[in-house]
């Protein structure tokens, strides 16, 4: 489904601090994969997501989505198929816009924004139905600005907003890193539920070893811009958080 | 009394510009100083149209297109050449001074006795007539802008100023949104320039100097009113702009009426704007910030 072929991404090229963030990196992600990515800081995890989403352009290699080459598309064009949840919970939603307006924009992902007034009763009902899933009581606060909500709530809403339109790939960039344990659990449970319900293909970066072992059906470890380990469903099931700690010590 | 009436009428002529500044500053989060140039450009196009006997149906679109082109140029400099927003505006504003001067051919064009917006007579009283005509224009603009900001496109505009990362990740080319946005706001500014030129009866090459400051001041007053009364609805926010401009012009009229040298007007304007900007942030006025 999503194929990365011999991708290179170099920062500060030809300078003393040159970094090979992705070094001849190849990876095939299949339809319905829930891929967990672990690796030390600077191993290229975030660059991997940036390269897939298009916020960074690759220096070499090929990027194919359903056999279609997408490496030349800017981020806003790829977002029709690729949704992203950021590490910073404030980044995924517009704080001054209401919950309803945020959802409206999310439902128009990758479509042109016309001069039509799109927020009608039908749309409100649809948003309320989605919000019901959260059980946070937000369905009665749809006109409140996003800025008044907590980071956990906003991250959960960002997650929920990704399924307002038909996306193919969901990129999760340490979505719970800035949240307290309870909110983090809630957001991950919601993610898991949505991923199964909507059969999304997911790339999930995490530094949380418990999350890494609990979620996903495939796990890769990255190191210095290269793929170091790739565990399938079976291998991942047998994996314990201790094993992961040991992997990190190898680096 | 006439003095204050004139101030209100002038304020109404300034209102389209302040609506434009409000949108660039508050909705787009883009400090656009093209204003100084596009304001004069509107007045210049208006003067050329009027003195060459061009009918209003053609002059008005020309004014709007002129302003829009100025805005588009600034936005292109900013988005395509990656020049800082303030600097893009300053570059455009400076360039427009020469453009305006060559369009006019001289530094001042009188417009008295020419066919203008205000030639349309709704009532016999001249001042009341101007008041009504500008009010109608403003109401139309507010209705239009309110619709625009509520539409799907408007939501994308508002999100562009609020969280660019988010809206790009939702598939919006923020570059083109900025281009369209600045085109709209600068055509409003140009319209304002044209209104003022007709109101005062001449177009002058220097009439735009520092105009962005009085626009900013008006928007800041409006912001304070909005905060004070915790207004959330977009249409009410836009109406507060009208209040902001009127208050601003009335304060200036008052300072002039107590006999302050007119040469000090720009200094006073700056001090007044500074006061408005600084007050809500000072600890004595905490209550304005209470959310």
Describe this structure in words.
The complex is a heterodimer of chains A (251) and B (291). Chain A contains 9 helices and 10 strands. In chain A, the strands form 2 sheets. Chain A has a 6-stranded mixed β-sheet with strand order 6-7-8-3-9-10, with helices on both faces. Chain A has a 4-stranded antiparallel β-sheet with strand order 2-1-4-5, with helices on one face. In chain A, β4 and β5 form a beta hairpin. Chain B has a two-stranded antiparallel ribbon with strand order 1-2. In chain B, 75% of the residues lie in helices and 2% in strands. The mean pLDDT of chain B is 90. Classes of the chains: A alpha/beta (251), B mainly alpha (291). The interface between A and B is medium-sized, with 35 and 22 residues.
- Write out the strand line-up for the largest beta sheet of chain B, numbering strands in chain order: 1-2
| Percent of sequence in beta strands of chain B | under 5%
Q: What is the residue-averaged pLDDT of chain A?
A: 89
DSSP strand tally of chain B: 2
User: Gyration radius of chain B, to the nearest Å?
Assistant: 19 Å
Order of helices and strands of chain A: EEEHEEHEHHHEHEHEEHH
Count of DSSP H/I helices of chain B: 12
Distance between the termini of chain A: 31 Å
User: How many beta strands in the DSSP annotation of chain A?
Assistant: 10
Counting helices, strands and paired strands, the structural category of chain B is mainly alpha
Brief sketch in words of this structure:
The complex is a heterodimer of chains A (251) and B (291). Chain A is of the alpha/beta class and 251 residues long.
């Amino acid at each position: 489904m999503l194929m990365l072929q011999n991708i290179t991404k170099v920062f500060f090229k030809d300078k003393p601090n040159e970094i090979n963030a992705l070094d001849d990196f190849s990876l095939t992600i299949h339809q319905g994969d829930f891929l967990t990515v672990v690796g030390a800081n600077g191993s290229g995890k975030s660059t991997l997501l940036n390269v897939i989403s298009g916020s960074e352009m690759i220096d070499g290699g090929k990027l194919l989505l359903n056999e279609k080459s997408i490496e030349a598309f800017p981020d806003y064009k790829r977002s029709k198929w690729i949704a992203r949840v950021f590490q910073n919970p404030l980044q995924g939603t517009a704080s001054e816009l209401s919950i309803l307006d945020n959802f409206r924009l999310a439902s128009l992902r990758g479509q042109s924004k016309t001069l039509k007034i799109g927020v009608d009763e039908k749309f409100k009902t649809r948003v309320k139905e989605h919000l019901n899933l959260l059980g946070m009581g937000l369905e009665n606060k749809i006109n409140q600005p996003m800025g008044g909500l907590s980071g956990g709530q906003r991250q959960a809403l960002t997650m929920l907003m990704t399924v307002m339109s038909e996306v193919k790939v969901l990129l999760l960039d340490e979505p719970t890193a800035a949240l307290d344990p309870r909110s983090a659990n809630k957001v991950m449970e919601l993610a898991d539920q949505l991923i199964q319900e909507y059969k999304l293909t997911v790339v999930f970066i995490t530094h949380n070893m418990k999350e890494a072992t609990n979620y996903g059906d495939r796990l890769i470890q990255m190191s210095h811009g290269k793929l170091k380990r790739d565990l399938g469903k079976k291998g991942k099931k047998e994996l314990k958080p201790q094993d992961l700690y040991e992997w990190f010590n190898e680096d | 009394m006439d003095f204050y009436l004139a101030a209100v009428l002038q304020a109404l002529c300034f209102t389209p510009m302040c609506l434009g500044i409000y949108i660039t500053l508050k909705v787009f989060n883009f400090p656009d100083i093209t204003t100084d140039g596009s304001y004069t450009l509107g007045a210049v196009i208006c003067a050329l149209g009027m003195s060459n006997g061009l009918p209003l149906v053609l002059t008005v679109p020309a004014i709007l297109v002129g302003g829009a082109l100025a805005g588009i140029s600034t936005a292109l400099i900013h988005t395509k050449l990656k020049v800082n927003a303030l600097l893009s505006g300053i570059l455009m504003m400076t360039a427009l001074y020469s453009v305006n001067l060559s369009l006019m051919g001289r530094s001042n064009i009188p417009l008295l006795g020419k066919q203008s917006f205000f030639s349309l007579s709704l009532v016999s009283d001249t001042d009341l007539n101007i008041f009504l005509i500008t009010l109608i224009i403003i109401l139309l603009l507010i209705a239009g802008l309110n619709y625009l900001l509520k539409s799907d496109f408007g939501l994308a505009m508002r999100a562009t100023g609020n969280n660019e990362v988010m809206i790009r990740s939702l598939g919006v080319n923020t570059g083109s949104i900025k281009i369209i946005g600045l085109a709209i706001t600068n055509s409003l500014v140009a319209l304002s320039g044209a209104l003022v030129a007709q109101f005062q009866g001449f177009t002058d090459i220097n009439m735009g100097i520092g105009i962005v400051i009085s626009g900013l001041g008006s928007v800041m007053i409006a912001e304070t009113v909005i905060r004070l009364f915790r207004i959330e609805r977009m249409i009410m926010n836009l109406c507060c702009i009208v209040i902001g401009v009127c208050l601003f012009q009335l304060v200036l009229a008052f300072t002039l009426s107590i006999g302050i040298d007119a040469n000090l007007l720009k200094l006073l304007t700056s001090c007044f704007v500074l006061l408005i900007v600084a007050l809500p942030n000072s600890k004595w006025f905490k209550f304005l910030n209470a959310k």
